[in-house]
Amino acid sequence: MCTLNTFSHFIDRKMNSTLKRNILSVSILLCVLILSIPGTAQTPVTPPREDHQFWNETQIVKHLNEKRDLVFIGVIRLGRDWHRPVDERAGLGYAFKVNPHLTIMPTYLFVSYQPFPGRLINEHRLVMNVTGKFSLRKFTFTDRNLFERRVRHSNPDFTVYRNRLQIDHPARIGNFEFKPFIADEVWYSTQTLQGKDAGWFRNRISVGILKQFTKHFYGEFFYLHQNDGVSRPGNIPVVGTLFKYTL
Description:
- The chain has one helix spanning 2-41; strands at residues 53-63, 68-79, 84-99, 102-113, 121-136, 139-152, 158-168, 171-173, 176-193, 196-212, 217-228, 236-246.
- It is α+β, with helices and mostly antiparallel strands and 247 residues long.
- An eleven-stranded mixed barrel has the order 1-2-3-4-5-6-7-9-10-11-12.
- Strand 9 and strand 10 form a beta hairpin.
- Residues 1-12 and 26-42 have low confidence and may be disordered.
C-alpha cells in the first residue's frame, strides 16, 4: 500500500511538472505572438496611385411646391478594387428653381472616407450648388457649379470649386428610350499642400445614359475616369449609378 502511494505521488509530481512546462511553453509562445502584432500593424502603408471603384448615390426628393424641393442624399462607394466601402456620405439639400434654366441648392453633407488602410477622414461639407441648363435643338447642356467649404477637426478647412459640363441627347432602341451623355468636370482647391495651394488638381470625364423609368423614378448609369495628381489614390476608374425617387 505504501508502495502504491509512493508510486501515485511520483506520477502526480511528473504530471504536474509536465503540465507546468506545457503551460509555460504556451505562455511564452502567446507572449511572442502578442508582441509581434503591433510590429505588423505599424508596417508603413504606401498609398496606392490607382483604385478601381463602384459608386452609388441615392436621392429621395420631396416636392414642396412647383419651385422648391427637399432632397435627402445618401452615397456609398466601394473601393480597394471593389472589396470594401471607402466613402460614405449622408446629407440634405434645399433646391429652388430661380427660373426654368437656373436651379440653386444649398446642401449639407457629412463625409467619412478611408482611401487606403490607416487613413480615415471625417468632414462636414457646406455646398452651394448652382446649376444652369439650356437646350439647343435636341441637345441639352447642363453646367453645374459646386462651391464646397470642407470643415475638418484635425486639419485646416479649405474650399473646393467644381465645374461640370454635361451634354445629352435623346435616343431610342426599340421601345427603350434614354439619353446618352458625356460630361467633364474640373476641380480647383485652396488646400495647402507642401506650402502652396493645390490649384487645378483634378479632372473627371464620364459617359453614360440617363433614364426616366417612371414619373417618380429616375436613374443614371455611367463609367467615369478620374485623373488627380495630388490625392492618393488619384487615378480612379469608376462604374457608377445614381437613383432618384420623387415623392
